[in-house]
# Entry
Amino acid sequence: MKIIFPVAIIILFFTSFKLMPAKDKILSLTAQIEKRSGDTFLMKVTLTNNSPDTVKYITWDCTWEKVYSINSDRWTITASDQFCFKNGHIEIKIPPYGSDIKNLELIKEKGIAKVKNQKFKIGFNYITNFTIKKIPSKYSATPNRDWEMIWSNDVSPNLFL
# Structure
């Protein structure tokens, strides 16, 4: 009986702590080339929730491509050619251990010569809070400092790398 009480306290003490995943490990981004056509690539970008909780992020209705970046000046992410009446911000939810898959179109910049190592990464601007501030006679939508950039794996457009 004397041993059970201290053991129970020790077990209770160690099970009362909850390990939180690191903030940069909650979301992960993977990118792969789906289709090649001359100087254009269609990229499949998968944003994965690695946590047991639902993850929310802010993006735009029509120009959702603007939350993605690329770390190379040789490529440009193009916006989709969809007709849009309202381009407001929306909140996307990714369920626990679920994924959000998007297709990005990349175009090679004109006048840039081929370089041996053309590897690049796709970045996702993870915005968790968005406020619209009223300015006299116009509105300005500015993200708070509640964002971070999440980078994908290295992608090589060269077939031989």
